[in-house]
Amino acid sequence: MRNRNEIEEDILFLKTMIYYANEVERKFSLVNLKEDSLEQEMFLDSVALMIGQFGEQLDRSKLSYASYIKYRDKYPLHDMKQSRHDIYHEYGTLALETLVKHVKVDMPKWVDDIHRMIRDLEKELEKR
């Protein structure tokens, strides 16, 4: 049985994912996809960085293995974690269409999934 501290840490990492998802949304709002400039490239790079940080919270050194196993079949944890690698390919080239898809389509669903996981873990804490 997991201890209370491990569950609390998992909740913290998941809340950190929510923070990074909000940063993705905030930074993407600054992007003008019709403009090709160094400034826009920097905005896109900062969005990509936040998506990378979002996925990094699912690293084994952060989210517990117990939580990963518990949720991996119910939620697209692999896709969330893999999102950074989907965006960058061919030695650092930014896959713009993939980035936009992650921001506009995937991220809202993922945030809902993360909120569900947090609620579930909080219920688990209440039982202790």
Summarize the helix and strand pattern as letters: HHHHEEH
Shape: elongated
The averaged pLDDT comes out at 92
Q: Uncertain regions: pLDDT < 50 for 5+ in a row?
A: none
DSSP helical segment count: 5
Strand order of the largest sheet: 1-2
Radius of gyration: 16 Å
* Integer tally of domains: 1
Structural class: mainly alpha
Taking the sheet with the most strands, its summary is: 2 strands, antiparallel
Work out the helicity level: over 70%
Termini gap: 11 Å
The number of strands is 2
Strand content: under 5%
Provide keyphrases for this structure.
about 130 residues; mainly alpha; two-stranded antiparallel sheet; 5 helices; 2 strands; elongated; DUF86 domain-containing protein
Describe the structure.
It comes from Pseudolactococcus hodotermopsidis. This is DUF86 domain-containing protein. A two-stranded antiparallel sheet has the order 1-2. The protein is built from 5 helices and 2 strands. With 128 residues, the protein is mainly alpha-helical. The protein has one domain. It is elongated, with a radius of gyration of 16 Å. The longest helix is centred in the C-terminal third of the chain and has 31 residues. Helix 1 packs antiparallel against helix 2, helix 2 runs antiparallel to helix 4 and helix 4 packs antiparallel against helix 5.
